[in-house]
Amino acid sequence: MTTTSVGPRKPTRPSADSGGSQRIVRRRGRGDLRVALIFVAPALVGFVLFYLVPTIRGIYLSFTDYSILGNPVWVGVKNYVKIFQDKLFWNSMGVTLEYVLLNIVVQTVVALGLALLMYHVAKSTVIRGILLLPYLVANVIVALLWFWMLDYQIGIVNQMLQWVGIPKVAFFGNEFWAIPTIAFVNVWRHMGYTALLLFAGLQAIPGHLYEVANLDGASKWQTFWKITMPLLRPVLLLVLVVTVTGSFQIFDTVAVTTQGGPINASRVIQYYIYQRAFTQQDFGYGSALSVILFIILGVVAFLQMKFLRGNENDLA
Length: 316
What we know:
By secondary structure, the chain is an all-alpha fold. 71% of the residues lie in helices and 1% in strands. The protein has 12 helices and 2 strands.
């Protein structure tokens, strides 16, 4: 028997064809990148001009004393020190938190109820369109509509209250009712849009999970808490982040209806920023207030992502 020894294998060199294909792939990648940049360029230019540059300038102005009639004068952290001593700032933050809590809780509960009704009962696209109609109306128009309907003297709501023997209510003119009324107006406008987002999340839940739960004898309530809510969490997180961020920036409804009154009862932080910057011409202090609001929103969004486990998916 003869044995043959196999020597060490020589390293093979890449062929000319493989090198050419690699060059073609690189050339195609650069071409795709150029095409992608062409499509992204308009949005990128808009972002830089209308978001990034104003943000950087606003941060700079927050360290200055600046009015529209003069040049910015550097004052360091003076505006920020002044903020923490400003009673109107703390009042506006308290009012804003009251509005955010009312708006978030009521809107989320109502929207979730509507989403469940659309998923289990009313599956017509017409009904979904009707629910979305208030969101398609400009917020200023919605505020004006409810401002007239809830007017103390001629509002149809107060007229109906009188017909059933209930005294009229100064919805926008009462310290107790001002913020709840503003929250109700915004819930009415946004609940359809929020419900459709949650409805889309419900449709993404696999149907066989409900079938298995039904076979195991789980009740509707148990199915809701053990299957629906955990699997709806990513969409619910999106809704909460968007809703909380938007609630902290409430402005137009307050500007149209109460203008911060009565007696600062509805002076939210965004309206206070507007008053300091554009009414009192104190752009440096207004910019500092805006930076504080920006930081608050960033912290709130981070905490929501952290505690609601935004980077996890229960469907995986």
